[in-house]
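Narrative progress, year one. The postdoctoral researcher (J.K.) led the effort to move from monomer predictions toward full complexes, under supervision of the PI. The following entry was the first complex the group processed end to end, covering 329 residues in total.
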Amino acid sequence: SDPLVDIQGISRTYRMRSGLFGRPTAVQAVDGVSLSITKGETLGIVGESGSGKSTTGRMVLGLEPPDQGSVRFDGAPIAAPGSAAWRAQRARMQMIFQDPLGALDRRLPVADQIREPLDIHNIGTKSERDARVHELLQSVDLNDGHGRRYPGALSGGQRQRIVLARALATKPDFLVCDEPVSALDVSIQAQVVNLLVDLQAQLGLTMLFISHDLRVVRQISSRVAVMYLGRIVEHGDADDLFARPQHPYTQALVSASPAPGRRSTGRIVLTGDPPNPAARPSGCAFHPRCRLATARCAVEVPALTALDDRRQVACHLVTGPQSQTRDAA
Ligand code: SF4
Ligand code: MG
């Protein structure tokens, strides 16, 4: 079936000054990312901070232009921000970020903020908007009483539900969630993720779900892309990828975050510095931390290569069909 979102080779470079008197240098945040997201599926992007996953999400929404490459939404290129075509697209693509308090206006009752996109996009009559706000509050397991409160009078989890209700107001087809539960208590995280899973199924939403947290990505995604320093290093079906990670980096991430009910056998400890986009290592950017690195890895960038029709890996050592000896299960 056709992808709703088609991302072809997008890259993004920032000018960044290192230190007070340092010259601005070019920092490559995202380097040649290609992904497609099929209608109704949730694609997870997982990676440490500095992996380029948020920048990828912003480019997909048209909030930042890629330096290279293209993004198509439902067959059409992302329109120029501010144009009428972009506003029409934006009603169909919404986003949720990590900090719900930052996304809300502290001086307005939250129901007014849920209503705002309906006002902006001029959807429905006044009474239809009232009814829609009521329905949206219910869809995120809140009521009109919550709607009359100000953001400061709600818990973090309730605030993120409000942000979600607002994002759903225009009945979008596509939702980008960037670390949507990272600021919440672990017990609340599961509730919000379960709500997202339910709403995704009910509404047939297509989602891009970005997180550093494997547990959360595992819970919600049908496919997963693992990013490291701006590149995709592994990509495949979520269950299979977590059960049989092939890239040494994914193997380390998975071994540090075992599936519920499964014992971590032979935990691989990630050593070395966390990824720093301002100091990207040569060759395979993961090589200073890779326990399997060879001399070749420091000089040659491994291409993202299909192992079979469901899995892609960028590692010089992973070339053939998925081997049983690498089976982590
Ligand atoms: Fe490790 Fe080399 Fe594979 Fe990179 S290419 S993940 S350094 S073995
Ligand atoms: Mg981020």
